[in-house]
Each structure stands twice: as structure tokens, then as C-alpha cells.
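Researcher: I'm preparing a figure for a lab meeting and need a structural model of a single chain. I don't have an experimental structure, so a prediction will have to do for now. The sequence is pasted below. Please return the structure as C-alpha cells so I can convert it later.
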Amino acid sequence: MRNLAFLTSFYNLNGTLSISKDLFKNLAKNFENIYVIDTDKLIFFPKFKKISYSEKKKIEKINQKIPLNLHLIKPNNKKEFIEFAKKNDLLVISNFNKDFFCLKILFLLKKLNIPQIRIHNIGASGMDAHIKITNPIRLLNYHLFQNLFKKIILPILILLGLIPRTDIYFHSKKKELNDTKKSFFKSFLLKHGLLFAKEYKLINSKAYDALLVNKIKIEKKYIVHLDAEMNGRHEIETRGILKAEDVKAHYYHLRLFLNKLSKDFNKPVVVCVHPNIKRRDVNQLRKSDLLKGFKIVQNQTKYYVYKSFIVTSFETSAVCDAAILKKNMIGLWSKYMDINQIKHSKTFPKAIGYLRINLENFKYNKQQLSKILKKNISKYNNYINNYHCHKKNILGIDLVSSIIKKRYNIRKKINL
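Model: Understood. Here is the structure written out cell by cell.
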């Protein structure tokens, strides 16, 4: 019998465990063992990858509870991975990038004849990035090792049979699937299993799943701000480190705006930071004056979104929960953000239909703003139907587990 494995980088393991918490909980309930396997030493040129992705060397310890039958495996080289894979006869859930560095993993899966599936049920699409020509390593990494590889080289290698197709791609993007079916060329490839995956399965999103399983009381207690790192790893990767004075100016205007919202609507402000941010960086943010006077939390975003009256954000998929809950939402941007951050800040407001404003220049009347926010909520339904809810009251991850049980001979968990 096979065992289930989740292949992912351990660089941001705490973030991965937090983001995929509901997935791991469901899999651990249904299957005997879940092996979370580190891919950091199974890639091409790991040292160069760290440089090109601006990864720091220090690895954090696990700071959260995980299911007892979830096992963390760190192979030191491909030999150790091959031995482990042969011994345990794996079915792989792929959670690694489709870039040049991870090509080595795909070669290993092909060599070992290991079937793989992917789960992308966030309910959001990827965003392109602009890289300045003055950053040659970042430019090379993004355009050659990521974009060109993913869009051209990888499909060619799949068509030639040099790397394996994904068996099943579970996703929640109905609109994109429908667009593919409308294209003569893409629909032909889809029908004959010639795309990246042999089969595409539409499931409800993780945000919709959370609405069904979470027992968090929905309230209107807080102004909840979903913050974005101004000097996060991905930001540094594309444009380098932002000047300290620009960061301070950005947060100065953010504080003014959040304090005004808090005063006008008589709600305290809670700032949620991304799970992928290192704990030491979160502690530094708390000690700084950048968000002085606000409560700052990590790994509690969903809880506070459920408790929110207004949700503000720059750009994060966490707004999906707010959309499904029909919360008041405001998208933010400032002139101190880089070109990618400003461009990406347009994505969710446009897709979902909520207000997006400039921090420095926005002035509002409380009554008028309340009317706008209330009116915008009616626009959310189209986005929810296209990216989140496809079958009411059915868990997307339950469908994933059910199909795995039917199609693969996986060791199931025996509940005594």
C-alpha cells in the first residue's frame, strides 16, 4: 500500500503548516501517515537558488501543534529521498514551484514512477512581477528560471515525456477553467490530457471550507488590517531593499488612516501579518514604532477576519475569507510602495469589487463611506461563484480525500 507525502520547502515551514493547517488536519484524519518532505536539498543549485530568492540561512523551529501522524522528513540528498520513497511507495502532493530549480524533483518523480497531485484551492490567481534591469540576478531568476521555464520549457519537457504530468490538479478557479474550455487549442489539450495535469478537478476553496468547519463566531468587533511586508523576501527579490525613510513614511500614513477609521467607527484596530514572516521579524515589527498603538498578531488572521467590521489590505489572498463573509473591505496603496506592490494592490479590489484608495490623499465622510462599503458587498457574489463556492455545503478537501481513497491504494487511518 502507498503512503501519502507532501513535498515542500522547509524554508518557510511554519508558514506552510499554518496556511495548510486545515488540509493537514483533514488528511491526518483520513490516512495513517502523512509525510511532509523537505525539498530544499532535492533541487538544482540550492546555493544559487537561495541567493536568487533572497533566502536567509537561519531556519526557525516549529512553533505550532501538528497532528501526531504528520511526520517531518528532511532528506540530506537525493539518495536518501530515493531510499525513503522506495521503502514507503509514495503518492506525492506537490507543493513546490514550477521553476528550473525544482526540475530535479520532477526528474526524481519520473525516475521512481511516483504519481503526484496538486491542490490549489486558494481561490486566487498568480500575479506577474516587474524586475528592474539593474538587478541582473533577480532579472535572470524571474524571467528565465521562473517565467520562461514555467510557460515554455516545462510544457515542452512534459510533451516529450521527460518529466511526469500531474495526475490530478485540484483547484477552485471555475472562471479560468471555463476560459480554457472556450479556447479551441487549450480545450483540445484539456480534453486529451495534454496540459500540465492529466485531469482538472473543481473543488470548493479553502476559504469556503473554513466557513463550513470553523466554529468561530462571526462578529463586527474590529478594524482588521492585513499588512504586507515592505521589505519581505519576495519584495527584495524583485527590487531590492526599500529605503528606511520610505518605509517610515508609508507606515506613518497607514497609522493615520487606521486611527481615523478606528475613531470614526469606534472599533479597535488589529493588524494581522502573514504566516510566512519569520518570528524574529514579527518581534522587530512589534518593537518598532511603525504600527505603534495597534495589536499585532500572526497565525490568527482567519479568526480576526471573522471578528471584523472592516477589513483593509494591500494585497493578500486572506481577503478571500472577508469576501465570503460579506465583510466591509477597503484596498490600500501608497506612493512609497514599489511598482509591483501598487500593481498587485489592484488585483483583488478589481476581482471582488471593493473600494481601493490611496493612503496619503484619501479623505472621506463617514456616512458616504458606509454607503459605498455596503453597496460594494452586493458585488462579491460573482467572485465567490467563480473562485470559491461550486457545490454548496460540501468541503473541497473532503472531495480530495475521497478521490485519493478511490484511486490510490493509500494506507487509511483506523479509528479505534
